[in-house]
Amino acid sequence: MPVESVFNTTIQRVSILDEHANFDASLGEGLIPDDDLVAMYRHIRMCRQFDAIAFKLQRSGRMGTYPENRGQECPSLGAAYALTDKDWLVPCYRENAGLFWRGLPPEMILLHWMGDERGNAIDPNLRITPIAIPIGTQMLHATGLAWASKYRGDGGIACTFFGDGATSEGDFHEAMNFSANLDLPVVFMCQNNSWAISVPTKIQCSAPTLAQRGLAYGMHCVQCDGNDLFAVVKVVQDAAKRARTENRPTFIEAVTYRLGDHTTADDARRYRDEAEVELWKGRDPMIRLKRYMIGKGIWDDARDNAINEQVEHEVAQITARAEQIEPPDRSDFFNHMYAELPDNLRTQRDTMRTSSIGQDPLQIDVPLAQQA
Amino acid sequence: MANLTLVQAINLALVQEMERDDRIIILGEDVGLNGGVFRVTEGLYETFGGDRVVDSPLAESGIIGTSVGLAMAGLRPVPEIQFEGFLGPAYDQLCTHAARIRTRTRGALTCPLTVRVPVGGGIHAPELHSDSPETIYSHNAGIKVVMPSTPYDAKGLLTSALRDPDPVIFFEPKRIYRAFREEVPEDEYTVPIGKARVVREGSEMTMVSWGASMVQCMNAIEASERDIELIDLRTINPLDYDTIMTSVRKTRRCVIVHEAPLTCGVGAEIAARVMEQCFLYLEAPVQRVTGFDTIMPYYKLELDYLPDAERVGKAIEELAAY
């Protein structure tokens, strides 16, 4: 037989709680205890308030460019929930929900977007790498962090977050290839939110799913409803188990949607239909969670209204902490260049406001003395 | 003491530091069973095993990017990039990340990695196997750039690099990998990063160079009647200006020799600093003998591109006659 099929597979999609409040009990029952569910719902509410205030801070000139997270909270939150504190979270810049859940003080994210580097001084015990501005480079860091955990045998894994656009970057493919071929415990969480600024997913990938990109690397890959907290928790739990017990990576495509603009510097009305946004507003992860909790009798409108005031107060305090920080020292940017500041940098720092860079005072003094 | 080539000295430093510190992991293309294309890592796979000497996929950005992760986790990765011409794909990970992890996190995370890279021309290799990109990585803040010219310094400097808390690019001048031997202590020792060495004292002019060009400089000096002070930079970033300025204030003349192109080369920076700090001492403009502002030619003409003892000799006479 000259031609035969040597490889066949299918891509599975996991959905547990859909936008119509259908719940697959066979997969979802007992997956998230009620108390945790309420806490995570409340957490998303806080993140929405955080987003709204951050947007206002930018519009009123109190903060620089900010990327709204609205609508795609579940992939990072579900992952942070499903992982342990010894696992690394390696984000891009739209993972507030997961990072805050892990314990990152929210004012640090505000500080970051306020142009204050103190927002990045993350306690290493949190095992969170800072916001990654360039697209697609951080997956290699996650691969290295996971590699270190494997080398040390500390049981940790790494989960990295990125968007659909990042899967076009070379480093994404190198990270997938390294982790698969060197047997490294990495979870690749692709948050397919349909848009890379103005460019739709079809320009990044012409295959039917992004998930199948994992196939080329011999990696387990799966798609899930990225607006379904249960589905995300389920696929991340499976991926984490695979990483911990077999040192095998997993590629997850979480299908979600960016309800806001790319950043406050963007206007998405220039390139996408309002009808599409309205469609996805109907799939809002927060709304379906609330509907599910009310249906289950663990939530009600009275309690829902009561948390408005709570999150407003909470975010006001967060904002105050970010805005009230003392100004950085003017030579602060010298402080963390190297473990020890080299002599030539020390000179630059010490003379930054008193003379032109590098000018030897003796050389200045002599001609002045000659004039006199 | 052992009489070692530069390659052997580097290999010995790797062995001793790997024995001393199990955080050190070597990764790269062909570094394992094959011992590296220049055999620098020969025997390490057998001694330390496949967990510590890792043949990686063929992807330079991946090699450096995963090293950044390994380093952030507290290990001491020692990635090898096979030739300097292939640093390009890794530039982003080196300069966008390795160089910035400490500042970006205000020291919460650091990036102690040592990138080993054979550098420079003169071995009749194919295209992109002969360049000298040390300027690029020195201009980019946050990375230390080292280039030894002797087996003794190679062992001591590499030991320092492997113990350094920040990223280091360790350029290995491939032309002199096996060009000569030198007595090298078998016991561990360090040569500090950021300190130049006065190789030869002199009174008439100061010559500054590094890497394989040091051999050309020495040949030119020996062929000359002049009394020349020769400085081996050893570290390109951070640069030891004090040693240069002390010498130039004494000799009042300065010539810089490097393989890399003239424009914006390290020589330009040194010349500017000498002008700033020694202006009133100078008897002549600072002179440079360098590669040309062209693409490094294929190997039939590479010796016409590289500074040699003849060109350096002419510069000596021009500078003395000014």
How does this model look, in words?
The complex is a heterodimer of chains A (372) and B (322). With 372 residues, chain A is of the alpha/beta class. Chain A has two domains: 13-323, Thiamin diphosphate (ThDP)-binding fold, Pyr/PP domains (Rossmann fold); 335-371, no CATH class. In chain A, 44% of the residues lie in helices and 9% in strands. Chain A contains 14 helices and eight strands. Chain A has helices at residues 25-28, 34-59, 74-82, 96-102, 106-113, 138-152, 170-181, 201-204, 229-246, 274-281, 285-296, 301-323, 343-350, 361-371; strands spanning 13-14, 88-90, 158-163, 186-192, 195-196, 199-200, 220-225, 250-255. A six-stranded parallel β-sheet of chain A has the order 1-7-8-4-3-2, sandwiched between helices. In chain A, strands 5-6 form a two-stranded antiparallel sheet. In chain A, β3, α7 and β4 (186-192) form a beta-alpha-beta unit. The radius of gyration of chain A is 24 Å and the shape is globular. The mean pLDDT of chain A is 94. With 322 residues, chain B is an alpha/beta fold. Chain B folds into two domains: 2-184, Rossmann fold, CATH 3.40.50.970; 197-321, Rossmann fold (3-Layer(aba) Sandwich). Chain B contains twelve helices and 14 strands. In chain B, the strands form four sheets. Chain B has a five-stranded mixed β-sheet with strand order 9-11-10-13-14, with helices on both faces. Chain B has a four-stranded mixed β-sheet with strand order 5-7-6-12. A three-stranded parallel β-sheet of chain B has the order 3-2-4. In chain B, α3 packs parallel to α4 and α8 (213-223) crosses α12 (309-321). The radius of gyration of chain B is 19 Å and the shape is globular. The relative contact order of chain B is 0.12. The mean pLDDT of chain B is 97. Classes of the chains: A alpha/beta (372), B alpha/beta (322). At the A-B interface, α6, α7 and α13 of A face α3, α4, α5 and α10 of B.
